[in-house]
Amino acid sequence: MERFVLFGTQHLIILVSGIIISFVLLILGNILGRKFFGRFTAIIVLIIKIVELYYRHIVYGEKIKELLPLHLCNIALIFVILLMITQSKWLFQPCYFWCLGAVFALITPDVTAPLPNYVTLSFFITHFYILFGMVYACVYYKYRPTLTGYFASFIALNIICLVVYFINRELGTNYLFVNRVPSFKSPLSYFGDWPYYIIVVELIYIVLTYLIYIPLKKKHVKFGVQRF
């Protein structure tokens, strides 16, 4: 069976095509109506994801407990879909800082089958949509990351990780890779055993999310009637 090749021709074509398509969709949003188009794309992507989960369960025989949306990119996707539907500036904050995971997922995709496999197609569509949603919100809703959002998103993610840790213990799963190092080869394999690799990932997250906060951070912070 032919397998998906990391950084192969198809992978590179998908990355370039995804960027071009996202840019075209961004223009369409301005033409067709920004809020309407945001909601429309969110519903389409939600349908694509639901069909993917159904396909993996029926065709691949994956168990329901293995299909729960508890990995970071799936959690971020849910938040982005809600953001695009509601235009919530509060949802934008975690979406912005968590979208970094989608970047790494697109560079090193966890897929095995090449296109036109539906699961592979859905993987790239949904991960590109996380980034598209952030660009869309920045360009059309004028949302910007805040320092409060930076800290709140980090705290929220750690709370989610703690909850998921106990869910994993009950189900025998390893969502968010908080219970053990992934069984497959990954960057986490080089960060030590549990729980040391978690500490390394936390430090990397703190640095990288701050780096993406700096370019778009709000220029002013309001305290009462004063502006600094």
Structural write-up:
By secondary structure, the chain is mostly helical. The protein has one domain (9-227). The chain has 8 helices and 2 strands. The protein has helices at residues 9-32, 34-58, 72-86, 89-98, 100-107, 118-140, 147-171, 196-213; strands at 222-223, 226-227. It has a two-stranded antiparallel sheet with strand order 1-2. A hairpin with a 2-residue loop joins strand 1 (222-223) and strand 2 (226-227). Helix 1 (9-32) runs antiparallel to helix 2 (34-58) and helix 3 packs across helix 6 (118-140). The chain is globular. Mean pLDDT is 90; it is low at 220-228.
Q: Can you lay out the helices and strands and say which pair or pack?
A:
Elements: H1 9-32, H2 34-58, H3 72-86, H4 89-98, H5 100-107, H6 118-140, H7 147-171, H8 196-213, E1 222-223, E2 226-227
Antiparallel strand pairs: 1-2
Helix pairs in contact: 1-2, 1-6, 2-3, 2-6, 3-4, 3-6, 4-7, 5-6
